Amino acid sequence: MSSKIDRALYGPSWTEVIFGALLSVVLGVVLAAACLVIRPVAAVKEMPKEPVAGAVYYLEGSKDSNKGRSWTAKQQQLVSGLSVTVTEEELNTAVAVLNAPASRKPGVKEEPAAEAKPSVFVPGPPNFRIRDGQMQIGVPVAVAAFDLGLNIIVQARGGFEKKGDCFVFSPDTLLIGSCAVDKIPGVTGLVLQKLVGAQAVPEAIATAWGKLANVTIDGAQLKLDAP
What is the mean pLDDT of residues 138-147? Predict the structure, then answer.
């Protein structure tokens, strides 16, 4: 009873004031981040000469299948233990092949696929772009929550580093929509695991990757050095 009287006479305590202020700041940051995430990203083929202040641009890597058809031969070389140098066209061709619907064999009855659990975030195939010694991985993500029909582009740029016995992509920048999240501890690894790590990779390629002696980016090419 006395606490109610004290509140009426003297107002809220310093603890309540500080907590209320912190809560307001956190809510403000969350709302600001949400607005940046859903802000449209400008997909362009080349950077404008005069970029709009505050705008975020997305440059998709080339999907030229004519330039990328050499991937099949380089895949065989990589699996055989040879060093290879690949381009963004070859990487994007590999992604297209991996995500192509499986051809149905005549006379073979297919088992019905297990019903997948609905997901709030539905990532599309990754896209690779290699320029100026950096790799960009872009992933379109459909947000299926509340029937909003939102589509967000996640883009990461950086190079490779060795962690343990394997080389991993280590981005310097990570954007979810127009929101930069690479400075938030733990977010980069989680996002890459959910979006890029979910991509199916043939076991032979995964095994060959694990044996590489070095992975570097030279200009517009990815160099995979065999041991």
Answer: 76
CA distance 118 to 146: 13
Tokens of 26: 């956190």
**Pair of tokens at residue 68:** 């990328």
Q: Which pLDDT tens digit goes with each residue over 71-95?
A: 999 999 999 999 999 999 999 999 9
- Is there a single domain that holds both residue 92 and residue 12? no
Are 66 and 151 found together in one domain? yes
Angle value at C-alpha 176, between 174 and 181, nearest 5 degrees: 50
Domain match, 202 and 144 both: yes
When the pLDDT of each residue in the chain is averaged and rounded to a whole number, the result is 78
SS3 content of the chain, % helix, strand, coil (to 5): 35, 30, 35
Residue 204: other Cβ atoms inside 10 A: 13
Residues 124, 137 contacting (CB under 8 angstroms): no
Amino acid at 188: T
